[in-house]
Design a protein that fits this description.
two-stranded antiparallel sheet; 2 domains; alpha+beta; elongated; four-stranded antiparallel sheet; Alpha-Beta Plaits; single chain; 33% strand; 5 helices
Length: 133
């Protein structure tokens, strides 16, 4: 069974709960935190890879806490025909999925490292980064 990628949206009431601990301890899930962000108001998002036989029960536990869950079923695609290799996307990519290769100075994209934050889409002047559903 391959890991399922999900996005959690939580508020201040749930941000102080040991959610990940409970998923691991009570539901025997394997959790990989790909990206997490909590703002000063204690609201946040978290991108997870979840794997395990009790993943449905674990996600139900989160929903009962008031956590909104979305499947991460979209992906980013690098359209090399549109890309002018300016590197703007590489500077903003939080995971290093986009890199400027040296000495060729070409942009490379590793979709396995991408967390679909869509920052690259916003900064690409040529619209070479696209969302695929």
């Amino acid at each position: 069974m391959s890991p399922k990628r999900i996005v959690l949206y939580f508020n201040a009431d749930t941000s102080d709960k040991p959610m990940i601990y409970r998923l691991v301890k009570d539901y025997d899930l394997i959790i990989n935190i790909v990206k997490a962000n909590v703002n000063p108001q204690k609201e946040g998002t978290m991108v997870l890879e979840v794997e395990g036989e009790q993943s449905i029960q674990g996600l139900d536990y989160l929903r009962n806490l008031g956590v909104k869950i979305e499947d991460l079923n979209k992906e980013i695609v690098h359209n090399e025909e549109k890309c002018v290799m300016c590197g703007a996307c590489t500077a903003i990519c939080p995971t290093g999925a986009l890199k400027l290769e040296r000495p060729s100075m070409e942009v490379s994209f590793n979709g396995d490292e991408c967390v679909v934050c869509e920052l690259c889409i916003k900064v690409c002047p040529m619209k070479a980064m696209e969302v695929s559903l």
